[in-house]
Design brief:
The structure is a homodimer.
Chain A lengths: L4 E8 L1 H4 L8 H10 L2 E9 L3 H14 L2 E5 L10 H9 L3 E3 L1 H13 L6 H4 L3 E3 L3 E5 L2 E8 L2 E4 L3 H11 L10 E7 L3 H14 L4 E6 L11 E7 L2 H17 L4 E3 L2
Parallel strand pairs in A: 1-2, 1-3, 3-8
Antiparallel strand pairs in A: 4-5, 6-7, 7-8, 9-11, 9-12, 10-11
């Protein structure tokens, strides 16, 4: 797709990797980025193992314009994101005095102890710029083209909201979706012709598992591009192709 | 974790990557594999772009004992998994005569046309071993240590069920989960001591976003290991640590 910027998302955590905790961040990040013309081109999920995080960061930050991470910046022993990011950038993980002071003031005001575990959250790689989230004591940060955010969706969303305006802007991507009661095999040939006629449009085709949803459509077509007229024309042609084959199809909301 | 085998999961598809289609396969694959002592150590999501699929396959198949892929083996223009896997292995993508014949027989019996688009599904990389799924005309396949499966969850699950017994077996992993009404900061120090006393156990700590669930616990601890007694002892110590701090905690089902 033309004129779009690229990004990668790195989700950090053993339980995301084993599917025990369902990721809720990728979809939000991808949607917000697409509005700005930034396209997620790769997502990785890695465990809480320093070497794995370092390798992933190094691989992604050289290939994509932006890298967004979530998870592993809390106070517990398995929160090793900052140590790992510092290592990837070859800098020490250092105390952020402003963060330390405001955490201390907050905890003092509550009569709570500022434990060594909590103090770890006031560290970030040397040279990092903090990303504050009003509802969280612990900021995320940017270092180079890597944005480090919390794993808890509500906090991550606030952090992303705080930085989104600072990102470079590509041409925004327009998404349309069609639900059709057709099997992929019955429409594949027509779809390929339409795709060839619209080389700048991405047409994705996703078979639906009947019985796993209440709806009766059997395939979803996703139509994406940076030129809204071209997207609309492509959708019309897909709807026409379904109609010509006497298959039901509608533009979804 | 000792005595476990490693695997990677590669999810293929533009819309998985942008979160428009929610992945339902990772959790199932990871759970089935863990029962056999095989641990998912990395997951990647890549778009329907040949170069990206080839690069991911090459990176993963050399680092992990098994690689499981889902998606992109259907009849439409964006189904390029087999071409890409063949390229990664440096072999041609060739017709599988048995598959072709049975697809043709099936479609003939229905009076349906065997279109060129559908015929593409009878191709697989040279040397691949088919993985048949009773409810699908299109088999998956194994080539080297890479298992190529459908993206539709019901079909993928049948394919995985058909091959799971053939995989090498590590020591099975035992998982326990604790819900606790404590903040991570309040328990981090105790948790780190427990972790240090049980070096073969993975203790994960996952803060929950109050308001996003109906339950009132604030953190989930995931406790994993290959020695059930060690897992149980670790859980008891976490429950005791919560109790000592007057925090509610229970072993979850």
């Amino acid at each position: 797709m033309q004129n779009t910027l690229s990004a990668a998302v790195l989700l950090i955590g053993n339980e995301l990797l084993s599917g025990s905790i369902q990721d809720l961040n990728l979809s939000h990040i991808a949607t917000r980025l697409e509005e700005r013309g930034i396209r997620v081109r790769e997502t990785r999920i890695v465990p809480d193992i320093e070497e794995d995080i370092v390798d992933a960061i190094d691989a992604l930050r050289t290939r994509f314009q932006y890298v967004f991470t979530t998870g592993g910046i809390g106070p517990t022993h398995d929160d090793i994101t900052s140590d790992s990011i510092a290592k990837a950038f070859g800098v020490p993980n250092v105390i952020q005095q402003d963060v330390f002071d405001s955490m201390k003031a907050y905890l003092d005001s509550k009569g709570a102890e500022f434990t060594p575990a909590a103090q770890r959250m006031a560290y970030a790689p040397e040279g990092a710029e903090m990303i504050y989230a009003q509802q969280s004591m612990i900021p995320g940060y940017r270092i180079g083209n890597v944005y480090v955010m919390a794993g808890v969706p509500r906090i991550m969303q606030i952090m992303l909201g705080g930085i989104i305006e600072q990102l470079d802007t590509g041409v925004a991507i327009v998404n349309k979706k069609i639900h059709a009661n057709v099997s992929e095999g019955e429409i594949a040939a027509a779809l390929e012709i339409i795709q060839n006629q619209h080389p700048d449009i991405d047409i994705g085709s996703y078979p639906q598992d009947k019985g796993s949803t209440l709806s009766d459509y059997r395939v979803v077509f996703m139509v994406k591009g940076t030129d809204e007229q071209d997207v609309d024309a492509t959708c019309s042609e897909i709807l026409d192709a379904c109609s010509a084959g006497e298959f039901d199809a509608i533009l979804a909301d």
